[in-house]
């Protein structure tokens, strides 16, 4: 199936769509997304070694503590890739174990390239034949939104999702994302509008899914930017909470009425409570309560 990102992709009728799975997970568990980011500093703090064994112990602990209770786990691929093939093998287990325990897995890989290469990324992260396949992945639209068509196509065909970088949480983001394109829109607004077009018609009424398969990353740190978030039709991933300085109230300022579709995402804020399962669970539960008051 070929997806024209300017028009609505055809939805495979027999698939359990990402939007429907996400809606169920959020209804059962709340919208919190917790990152699995085995930072070297966190390995030290947990008394683990800075090697693949330490990363494996760390990631296994996070999955054991949280995969049966949070809606989404988001492994940060970079922290696994830095250990080469053995690190990637750990990531494969994290994905399988987290999904088996009921969490949706969002692979934070931020991939983007020319379309023919993007096809291979789609096969790696969105096709169930791959051991790295999760429920969704992050993607960079800065080779042009249309270059992501193979990702969206593969996601839709397999009932998975893609989260496209829109307004990232880092201070350097606005240099590119706030730049004004020839038609007067910012680069970020063109991304938001392209996501809206890709999602249009992709919300299968029968599933009652409130989300299309294409989400957007909008950092909780970005403040009121004047971008129109109202027509996206997919979920928002909101990193930048906790360690990067944003708090629950920032979600209201950044997302306004769109905040009901937000998945607040925290990594270090929860992970530094470890390694005890009970402490990780308490930290995740505190964060969830904090955000719920604003997102309800
Ligand atoms: O705009 C973005 C996109 C992705 N991230 C990723 O989220 C986590 C944030 O970690 P914290 O410890 O909660 O700061 C990390 O994996 C980033 O690569 C982001 O921060 N901002």
Describe the model.
The protein has helices spanning 18-29, 40-45, 52-66, 78-81, 84-100, 115-126, 149-158, 173-177, 187-199, 248-255, 268-271, 277-295; strands at 33-36, 72-75, 104-111, 136-139, 161-167, 214-218, 236-238, 262-266. By secondary structure, the chain is α/β, with parallel strands linked by helices. The protein has a single domain, classed as Aldolase class I (TIM Barrel, Alpha-Beta Barrel). Strands 1-2-3-4-5-6-7-8 form an 8-stranded parallel β-barrel, surrounded by 8 helices. The longest helix has 19 residues, at 277-295. It is globular and about 55 Å long. The model is unreliable at 1-14 (pLDDT under 50). The ligand O=c1ccn([C@@H]2O[C@H](COP(=O)(O)O)[C@@H](O)[C@H]2O)c(=O)[nH]1 is lined by residues 35, 37, 76, 108, 168-169, 217, 219, 239-240, 242-244, 265-269. The ligand O=c1ccn([C@@H]2O[C@H](COP(=O)(O)O)[C@@H](O)[C@H]2O)c(=O)[nH]1 binds next to β8 and α11. The active site is at residue 110.
Number of helices: 12
Class derived from helix and strand content: alpha/beta
Per the principal axes of the C-alpha atoms, what is the gross shape? globular
How many structural units, i.e. domains? 1
As a percent range, the share of strand residues is 5-15%
Helix content range: 40-55%
Order of strands side by side in the largest beta sheet?
1-2-3-4-5-6-7-8
Active site: 110 (proton donor)
Protein name: Orotidine 5'-phosphate decarboxylase
Pfam family, one: OMPdecase
Domain Orotidine 5'-phosphate decarboxylase: 31-283
């Amino acid at each position: 199936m070929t997806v024209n990102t300017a028009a609505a992709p055809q939805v495979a009728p027999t698939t359990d769509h990402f939007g429907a799975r996400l809606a169920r997970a959020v209804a059962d568990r709340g919208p919190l997304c917790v990152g699995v980011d085995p930072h070297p500093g966190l390995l030290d703090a947990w008394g683990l070694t800075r090697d693949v064994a330490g990363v494996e112990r760390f990631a296994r602990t996070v999955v054991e503590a949280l995969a049966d209770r949070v809606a989404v786990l988001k492994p940060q691929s970079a922290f696994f890739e830095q250990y080469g093939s053995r690190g990637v093998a750990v990531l494969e287990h994290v994905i399988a174990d987290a999904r088996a325990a009921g969490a949706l897995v969002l692979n934070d890989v931020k991939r983007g390239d020319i379309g023919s290469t993007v096809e291979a990324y789609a096969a790696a992260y969105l096709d169930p034949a791959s051991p790295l396949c999760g429920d969704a992945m992050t993607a960079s639209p800065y080779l042009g939104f249309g270059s992501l068509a193979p990702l969206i196509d593969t996601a839709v065909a397999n009932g998975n999702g893609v989260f496209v970088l829109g307004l990232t949480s880092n201070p350097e983001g606005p240099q590119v994302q706030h730049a004004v394109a020839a038609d007067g829109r910012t680069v970020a607004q063109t991304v938001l509008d392209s996501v809206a077009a890709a999602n249009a018609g992709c919300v299968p009424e029968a599933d009652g899914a409130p989300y299309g398969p294409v989400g957007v990353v909008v950092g909780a740190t970005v403040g009121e930017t004047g971008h129109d978030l109202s027509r996206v039709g997919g979920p928002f991933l909101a990193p930048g909470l906790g360690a990067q300085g944003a708090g629950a109230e920032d979600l209201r300022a950044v997302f306004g009425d769109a905040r009901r579709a937000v998945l607040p995402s925290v990594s270090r804020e929860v992970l530094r409570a470890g390694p005890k399962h009970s402490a990780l669970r308490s930290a995740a539960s505190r964060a969830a309560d904090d955000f719920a008051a604003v997102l309800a």
